[in-house]
Amino acid sequence: MLTGKQKRFLRSKAHHLNPIFQVGKGGVNDNMIKQVGEALEARELLKVTVLQNCEEDRDTVAQQLSKGTKAEVVQIIGNIIVLYKESKENKQIDLP
């Protein structure tokens, strides 16, 4: 689990990132979870946009993604979910 201080630190890092995944009408599927997992391994921190036509609410989407990829939900703001997972091979972010 992330502490409040760590979440604040990650939010400041994520502020400048652009979302690289979009969850739309199909919702979250295994293929998306796999791709998000691979992207997290490469980047550690990323944003996912929940589109308007998505049938599930953003909290459900965040939960499905974090459970599927074993990542932490740093923040849900508007329709954007920020996810963090420490990389095994490619560690770039040192948490406070």
UniProtKB/TrEMBL annotation:
User: Which SMART domains is this protein grouped with?
Assistant: CRS1_YhbY (SM01103)
Q: Which Pfam families match?
A: CRS1_YhbY
Its transmembrane ranges are none
InterPro entries in the record: RNA-binding_CRM, RNA-binding_domain, RNA-binding_YhbY, YhbY-like_sf
The record's listing under PROSITE patterns reads:
CRM
**Which is one GO molecular function term here?**
RNA binding
What residue stretches are annotated with the CRM domain?
1-96
Keywords carried by this UniProt record: RNA-binding
Q: What is this protein called?
A: RNA-binding protein
Q: Which organism is it from?
A: Sporosarcina globispora
